[in-house]
Write a structure and sequence with these properties.
The protein is about 30% helix and about 20% strand. By secondary structure, the chain is of the alpha/beta class. The strands form four sheets. It has an eight-stranded mixed beta sheet with strand order 7-8-10-9-13-17-14-15, with helices on both faces. Helix 3 packs parallel to helix 4, helix 7 runs antiparallel to helix 9 and helix 11 (about 380-395) packs across helix 13.
Length: about 475
Amino acid sequence: MSIKINYKNSTSKNPSNNLVLFVDEKFNINPLKKHLFNSEFSYINDLLKTSDLSKNLFVFELSSKKKIVLVSIKKNIKTSDIENLGAEFYGRVNCGKNSEYLINSDTIISKDKSFTGHFLHGLKLKSYEFNKYKSKKDTRLITINVSGNKNKPSANNLLKFKALEEGTFYARDLVSEPGNVLHPDEYVKRLRSLKKHGLNIKIYDEKKLKKLGMNALLGVGQGSIRGSYLVTIEWNGAKNNSKPLAFVGKGVCFDTGGYSLKPAKFMEDMTYDMAGSAVVVGLMKNLALRKAKINAVGVVGLVENMVSGNAQRPGDIVKSYSGKTIEVLNTDAEGRLVLADALTFTEKKFKPKFMIDLATLTGAIIVSLGSEYAGLFSNNDKLSKQLLEVGEKVEEKLWRMPLHKNFDKLINSKNADMQNINYVGGAGSTTAAQFLQRFILNKTPWAHLDIAGMAFSKYGGALNSGGATGYGVRLLNQLIEDHYE
């Protein structure tokens, strides 16, 4: 299925068009008389008298060739609700053969001048599908013609929406790829290709990582025949040399759990254990495409956690890039080892304004928050407040969880500076975040987003149809737009 959108000025009545018209929340259609034939107006008016008006959207089939869609706009509607309306519209029209719809933007009764842009943005996000490996692809086309002079998105807004869609879709594509295709070596090749968008890509392979002393990250990947990498992705969009905003992602391309082997059931889902890195990559692509006026850096650690004669053993002790030693009691608590080295490296090399890491880090966060909120852990109240606010704005919600020095005793080790898992039990997500906090050495404002429950959806959500969600790209883009650009 593909979507084609055209902008036109004509609003003339056309008996062959499927019309999309907007009304208030009471479905008052009197203002639409000039856009409908008398017979159409009477027919729809009669049907509305016996309809449940709590719905957002009605589809009236006037003939085999013509439908009229009425979309209700609530008073003081939020942008996220506008996008949800667009997604709901797509869900209703995504059936049958090729189809064409005419959206009359002159009927929009909203103070939001970007209404049409947000409506179509929601539609586009919902329309994503990953069908690369299907021999029979859905070749249907939905054409959306937007008529009228009101609420027409500016060229700049159209660019922003397109960049955000491409960044989100790129993240979804990466997460959707199977492990035999998107292993660390292939991932690095794809990241190299982003140079064409103006991003500066630097790749640290195993030889360079060993020289740097990134033994925590290397330990995770040592059981795989594939390489282990740390990749930096820089966007320099500010006119000055201001400190960059830093985004760090966990990129475990496949996670067997290592010798602390995961159960066979659902292990196939561990292709999305690199979702944190995919969000960082998608965000950086989006910033480059829309020429964001900020300096930013994305850092991703790419490994594969496999079982072999060379794999890391439970009980191994590794020295991290920071110099701190870690006793690896559980090889399935591997993401924090990758992030430990990546965080210290990012802070030391780039001296950023803040660091935000994203990771499908713990199953415990799903027990706590399900698939409604990502867990937020932070050493900075201002950054946390900003993240919580933009999360509500774009409906990529966060819930702040505690960090406290009393949790440190749960990860202190008798044999090293710390251990990578809490074997006493409880507070699984918090002790993982407490572990990561030990690798922030210079009090840089930092937030850790545990997105294990949000990166992949079995049943779909408001703006996705199931599978990889791209959660985090829109959240972090909004953070940048609202507070740092």
